[in-house]
């Protein structure tokens, strides 16, 4: 699912990325032909790129002509042919999105969660600290009972209460615990938290988390590419990702720097660096005159930023959120079945309400529910990663129901049935009201996407046809 989501980002990027790739390849082939290096091959390749760009421009003309002859819904069939031929433009960008996701995921797996340890300045437990020794003993006992190697234990010196399991597999897993959790929770609840983290390691949640993280990083890389004409830091981010991707082995520090830069791209303001550039000139008027040619790029970049945000909010966030929430609830239940007290786990989860400072963009890795923590202290936090955290009330209800708690059930069957029927009726009415709005919103996003992609693709292919 993460691979499909990351590749789907290429649908939007294809309108400018495909012409860019063709232009780079065509100019390289022309240079090779001019230097006499594989001249016959370079000439044939240049002709093929020029011919393909000209062919797609003809498809644009056919599509525009077919729109003039549409007088009914049935007339939309006239556009199927040109649109089907134009759809091949998305293939290069789809491949780039998929390859970028696979490479970023591999880098994350090589780091094994070490990048998050670097960001949070996590440390090993102190041998002379009784509470931290006790925490390690609990973790070791829980791991032995589950039949997995004891994960490495790291402490974060922050007063918040939370914990996370990181890594790529059970063989190189680590458990991250805040100092506030060690000092605040009683032993029974600490045992429940450690059991829940071990259950996540056994369930394979670590590798899935790396896939989710790579999907968000692919989105950040897409925004970086869109901002290249107008944001100077985007060039530094792209250069850093390219250099790290070419290195055979990535260090956790390098991956942490790359992740921080891609997280910054999720929240970067496109216009900031342009304003700074204007202010460098002796007068603002002179700066505006010199930077005036950047205005078309600023408009195009802004439109693509809006389209990418809407596209990912509707088609990227929901499937990832559904997948990760379902896994979290399933792992909660698995942990409760492994000789853990569901009530203790439910009580502990209710106290874990804040993610450590600096880790808001990885909120979904932590046990604590932090959906209301929108990153006031960390500009890299974004709403989509927060949306992956399952509601704590739903997790608590599930655990209390497994424990057979009276508060989790319904003592009166008739009142429960009436409540269930009323709730279904309310949901049905809301769906009837909201469904047309959702359909209209999706149609609006699709229409805006088509307009932006058409303008960018037509301009890009015209440039390829003229220069190659």
Task: Provide a quick synopsis of the model.
The protein has helices at residues 2-35, 39-67, 80-86, 90-111, 114-120, 130-146, 179-184, 187-202, 205-226, 232-246, 252-267, 272-279, 284-291, 295-315, 317-337, 342-351, 383-386, 392-403, 413-467; strands at 152-156, 163-166, 174-178. The protein has 468 residues and is mostly helical. It has 2 domains: 2-111 and 433-467, no CATH class; 112-409, no CATH class.
Structure in words:
This protein is mainly alpha-helical and 468 residues long. The protein folds into 2 domains: 2-111 and 433-467, no CATH class; 112-409, no CATH class. It has helices spanning 2-35, 39-67, 80-86, 90-111, 114-120, 130-146, 179-184, 187-202, 205-226, 232-246, 252-267, 272-279, 284-291, 295-315, 317-337, 342-351, 383-386, 392-403, 413-467; strands at 152-156, 163-166, 174-178. Strands 1-3-2 form a 3-stranded mixed sheet, sandwiched between helices. A hairpin with a 7-residue loop joins β2 and β3 (174-178). α1 crosses α2, α2 packs across α19 (413-467) and α9 runs antiparallel to α14. Mean pLDDT is 80; it is low at 374-381 and 407-415.
Which structural traits does this protein have?
3-stranded mixed β-sheet; 3 strands; 2 domains; single chain; mainly alpha
Give the helix/strand class: mainly alpha
Number of domains: 2
**Looking at the structure, what is the overall shape?**
globular
Total number of helical segments? 19
Oligomer: single chain
Helix % is over 70%
Average pLDDT across residues?
80
Order of helices and strands: HHHHHHEEEHHHHHHHHHHHHH
CA-to-CA gap between the ends?
37 Å
Low-confidence stretches: 374-381, 407-415
């Amino acid at each position: 699912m993460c691979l499909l989501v990351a590749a789907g980002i290429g649908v939007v990027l294809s309108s400018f990325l495909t012409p860019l790739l063709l232009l780079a390849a065509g100019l390289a082939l022309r240079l090779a032909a001019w230097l006499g290096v594989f001249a016959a091959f370079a000439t044939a390749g240049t002709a093929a790129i020029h011919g393909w760009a000209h062919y797609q421009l003809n498809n644009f003309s056919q599509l525009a002509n077919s729109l003039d002859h549409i007088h009914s819904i049935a007339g939309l069939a006239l556009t199927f042919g040109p649109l089907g031929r134009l759809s091949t433009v998305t293939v290069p960008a789809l491949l780039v999105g998929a390859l970028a996701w696979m490479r970023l995921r591999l880098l994350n797996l090589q780091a094994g969660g070490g990048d998050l340890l670097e960001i949070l300045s996590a440390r090993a437990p102190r041998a002379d600290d009784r509470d931290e020794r006790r925490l390690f003993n609990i973790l070791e006992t829980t791991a032995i009972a589950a039949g997995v190697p004891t994960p490495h234990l790291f402490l974060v010196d922050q007063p918040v209460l939370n914990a996370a399991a990181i890594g790529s597999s059970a063989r190189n897993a680590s458990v991250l615990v805040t100092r506030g959790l060690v000092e605040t929770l009683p032993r029974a609840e600490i045992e429940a938290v450690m059991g829940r983290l071990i259950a996540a390691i056994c369930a394979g949640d670590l590798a899935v988390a790396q896939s989710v993280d790579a999907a968000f990083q692919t989105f950040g890389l897409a925004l970086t590419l869109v901002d290249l004409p107008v944001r100077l830091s985007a060039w530094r981010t792209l250069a850093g990702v390219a250099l790290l991707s070419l290195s055979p082995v990535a260090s956790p520090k390098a991956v942490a720097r790359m992740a921080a830069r891609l997280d910054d791209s999720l929240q970067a303001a496109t216009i900031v660096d342009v304003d700074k550039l204007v202010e460098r000139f002796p007068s603002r008027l002179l700066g505006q005159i010199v930077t005036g040619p950047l205005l078309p790029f600023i408009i195009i970049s802004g439109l693509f930023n809006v389209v990418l945000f809407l596209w990912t909010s509707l088609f990227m966030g929901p499937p990832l959120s559904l997948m990760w929430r379902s896994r979290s609830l399933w792992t909660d239940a698995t942990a409760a079945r492994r000789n853990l007290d569901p009530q203790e786990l439910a009580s502990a989860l209710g106290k874990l309400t804040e993610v450590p400072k600096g880790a808001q963009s990885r909120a979904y890795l932590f046990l604590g529910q932090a959906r209301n923590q929108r990153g006031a202290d960390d500009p890299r936090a974004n709403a989509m990663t927060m949306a992956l955290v399952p509601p704590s009330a739903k997790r608590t209800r599930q655990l209390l129901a497994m424990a057979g708690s009276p508060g989790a059930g319904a003592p009166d069957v008739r009142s429960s049935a009436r409540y269930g029927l009323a709730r279904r009726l309310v949901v049905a009415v809301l769906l009837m009201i909201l469904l047309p709005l959702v359909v209209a919103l999706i149609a609006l996003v699709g229409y805006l996407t088509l307009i932006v992609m058409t303008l960018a693709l037509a301009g890009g292919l015209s440039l390829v046809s003229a220069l190659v």
